[in-house]
Structures are given as structure tokens and as C-alpha cells.
Amino acid sequence: MMPEKLKDHWPEYLMEAWGLGLFMVSACAFAVLLEHPASPVHRAIPDRIIRMILMGAAMGLTNVANVYSPWGKRSGAHLNPAVTWTFFRLGKVEAWDAAFYSLAQFTGGILGVLIARIALMNLVAHPAVNFVATTPGPRGIAVAFAAEVFISFALMTVVLRVSNDLRLNRFTGLFAGALVMTYISLEAPLSGMSMNPARTFGSAIFAETWTALWLYFTAPPLGMLLAAETHLRLAGARNVFCAKLHHDNPQRCIFRCGYGKRRRAATG
Fold first, then answer.
1. How many whole angstroms separate alpha carbon 262 and alpha carbon 237?
2. How confident is the model over 231-262, as pLDDT tens digits?
3. pLDDT digits (tens, 9 = 90+) for 21-65
4. How far apart are CA 79 and CA 15, in angstroms?
């Protein structure tokens, strides 16, 4: 079973690695542009709040680009082990696919930061950037943990609500991108805004910053799994169409997908 999955689904695994790698390169590049003291943009915009809003917008748009890209339409654009294992819990992803997706996501996160390190050299290592490492804010670990659970719960709740609505599902990437933008703009001072174990691990390796790493491996999956359990009790398992964030496209789907059947039934 495992070799068959690897042989048949390896393009989707590579696409997940590519997508998160692209996200990390973008995060590092925009962090250097906005936060490095030598950056002309940093000097031109002294207000930290405005820079955070701009960083949020940049990463929200990067997330949207991933979802609606050819690779995102095919792989589902999870780019996050917490998302993948939540859809596994919902019965839409098989175990081997979930395992290889997670491996690809961690690999992509690491390689993305490595590419940024090579391209941006010491700029991305500056303490003001620090490889975009996520660490708890000054309010402490407990607040950071609660914040990560909450934002992960809210994101997955919105994704499940929108992606399983035949009228709205094509906008799932826009909703997710808007939340990423909002979280980076407002929540980042509390926890660094991760929601993603692979994203945090990729930065931590190069920053050599392991502060409360366990938090970013537990809080995001907990929040998303809570959202899944809530969705199951309110809407039922039959009302989870697929594990893709963007269904309405001609790309193949490797998941236990019911989107096409639901669409045909709705259109008569």
C-alpha cells in the first residue's frame, strides 16, 4: 500500500513541499524588507504597527496565491501538518497520504528557509528578522498557547464552513488569506502567529531558537481538531466534501472526495 501511494501521489507531495517552501521564502524576504534596520522600507515606515499590517498583507496574498496556483489546486494547498491531520480525522485523507504530506511540509519549510538564507545571506539572520522564528510574546507561554489554539480553531472553522458550501467554496482561499493577514497584523505579538508546526520548525532550525517549540506542535493541531469535532457535531461527516481548499478545478484529486457528487446533485 505505502509504495503504491508514493509512486502514484508523489507529485502532490512535492507540490506541498513547494508551496510551503514558497511561503517561507516570501516570509523571510518580506521580513527583511520591512524589519531589517538597513532596509529603506523599514526606515521609510517607522511605525511598527503599519509594518505588521503590511507583513500580514504580504503573507495573506502569498497564501492566496498558493491556494489558487496550479499546485495548490492539485494538492489541496494544506501546507500545514495540522490541516492535513484534521482532514484525516474527518475521513478525507488516507493515513499514508497524511504521513507523506507531513513529511513534505516539514521538508518544504526547511528548504524554504535554506533558500532564503542563501539568497539573503546575513540579512535574514539579523536579530530583527531571525529567520522569521515564532516565539511566545511578552505575555508568556500560556497566553501564546491559548492564542495559537484560538486562531487555529477559527481558521479551520472558517475553512470547513466555506469549503463545504457549494456557493462559497471557490472563495475558501480568499477567506483563509484574509485570516492570515489579520492574524499576522493583530495576533503575532502574542505567539508569533504560527498555526503550523512545519513553518515553525523550518525557522527554528536556522535561528537555533527552540523556545516553547512544543507549543507550536500541539496548539495548532489541537485548535484545528477542535474545529473539526465541532463541525462534525453541527453539520455531520456527510457535510465534509473534500480535503482540498479549492475544489472547483480540473486538477485530479487524491482524497476521498465527494465534491463532484454533491455538485451534480445540486445542479440536477
1. 14
2. 998 877 668 889 999 888 889 999 988 876 76
3. 999 999 999 999 999 999 999 999 999 999 999 999 999 999 999
4. 9
- Closest-CA residue to 216 (of 197, 202, 233, 234): 197
Instruction: Supply the range of the domain harboring residue 43.
Output: 2-267
Distance CA 264, CA 141 (A): 48
- The span from the first CA to the last CA of the chain, in angstroms, equals 37
Judged by phi (left if over 0) then psi (alpha if -120 to 50, else beta), residue 167 lies in alpha
More confident residue, 47 or 268: 47
| Count of structural domains within the chain | 1
Q: Which domain CATH number covers 196?
A: 1.20.1080.10
Give dist(CA 136, CA 115) in Å, integer: 25
Alpha carbon 48 to chain centroid distance?
24
Buried b (16+ CB within 10 A) or exposed e, 110-140: bbbbbebbeebeebbebeebbbbbbbbbeee
Q: Using an 8 Å Cβ cutoff, are 67 and 246 in contact?
A: yes
Is the pTM higher than 0.85? Answer: yes
- The answer to whether the Cα torsion of 164, 165, 169, 175 is positive or negative is negative
Residue 32 neighbours by CB under 8 Å, 6+ apart: 39, 120, 123, 124, 126, 129
For residue 195, give the DSSP letter: -
Read off the C-alpha cell for 37: 534596520
C-alpha cell of residue 197: 508546526
